Amino acid sequence: MFSGSIVALITPFTQDGEVDFVSLKKLVDYHVEAGTNGIVAVGTTGESATLTVEEHVKVVMKTVEFADGRIPVIAGTGANATHESVTFSRLLNNSGIAGCLSVTPYYNKPTQEGLYLHYKAIAEESDVPQILYNVPGRTAVDLLPETVARLAEIESIVALKDATGDLSRVKIHRELCGEDFILLSGDDSTGLDFVKAGGQGVISVTNNIAAADMATMLKLASEGKFEEADIINQRLMTLHKNLFVESSPIPVKWAAHQLGLIKNGSLRLPLTVLSEKAQPIVAQAMKQACIV
């Protein structure tokens, strides 16, 4: 259902801070042409925390419209208030999305029982498959494997995006959740190793600017051609790392602008454009990756 190279899509803005739908369409077309296997619209990389509910839903709906059935669109529906995530789920029912991706509630630091009840409530209000998203480095809460296993028993919860970078969890999740549960990496630096360990794909930041390479790498990996996939991954490794030289998506939006994929690298406060000090670091990584 969800596998291969999936992009955690950036949300482009105009200079005055409005959503740039012209650039959004360009990004969707870019990923279709590059062979990307799926788009996550308005996930955390899409600056979901800074969009209004109305903007959030509109960006998802326009992404579905621009995709026009050519590529599946997964909607980011995460929030640190359960009622807000439930609202997103309700508003996006019957919208044409392929699924929902919900990050663990940030800042609140809920218990494992709280996390279970949070995701259960979201699943009960949605008509599409649900993907859990664990990224403790940014949310200050860790969705433990035992809780993932409990949630996997809910029929509509079909996958986990694991951005811990802990490759030992692939085996643990597989044993606890079964062979049919989908495991996706959310960490580009370890993404290929995650797939080698038994994962089915990567929801990627790097994919925003190196879509064809990521699609080829994950296709090779799915065919067991790991040596060939490794060659691509090593070329991209500095990019994987340096796209986080400042808080994501700051560097990747700057890079996308340099490549002409979006009109500018604008972000919404409290995020700011890539610093002059960091720009050469990202530029060099792009050069090493051979995407410029």
From TrEMBL:
Pathway note: Amino-acid biosynthesis; L-lysine biosynthesis via DAP pathway; (S)-tetrahydrodipicolinate from L-aspartate: step 3/4
Gene Ontology molecular function terms on file: 4-hydroxy-tetrahydrodipicolinate synthase activity
Positions of the record's site feature: L-lysine inhibitor binding: A49, N80, E84, Y106
Main location per the UniProt record: cytoplasm
Keywords: Amino-acid biosynthesis, Cytoplasm, Diaminopimelate biosynthesis, Lyase, Lysine biosynthesis, Schiff base
GO cellular component, one term: cytosol
Pfam entry (one): DHDPS
Listed EC numbers: 4.3.3.7
Catalytic activity: L-aspartate 4-semialdehyde + pyruvate = (2S,4S)-4-hydroxy-2,3,4,5-tetrahydrodipicolinate + H2O + H(+)
Positions annotated to bind pyruvate: T45, I203
Residues forming the catalytic site: Y133 (proton donor/acceptor), K161 (schiff-base intermediate with substrate)
Entry keyword NAD: no
Coiled-coil intervals, chain numbering: none
GO biological process terms, semicolon-separated: diaminopimelate biosynthetic process; lysine biosynthetic process via diaminopimelate
Source organism, top-level taxon: Bacteria
Subunit structure and binding partners: Homotetramer; dimer of dimers.
Function as written in the Swiss-Prot or TrEMBL entry: Catalyzes the condensation of (S)-aspartate-beta-semialdehyde [(S)-ASA] and pyruvate to 4-hydroxy-tetrahydrodipicolinate (HTPA).
Annotated family: Belongs to the DapA family.
Name listed for the protein in its UniProt record: 4-hydroxy-tetrahydrodipicolinate synthase
Organism for this UniProt entry: Vibrio xiamenensis
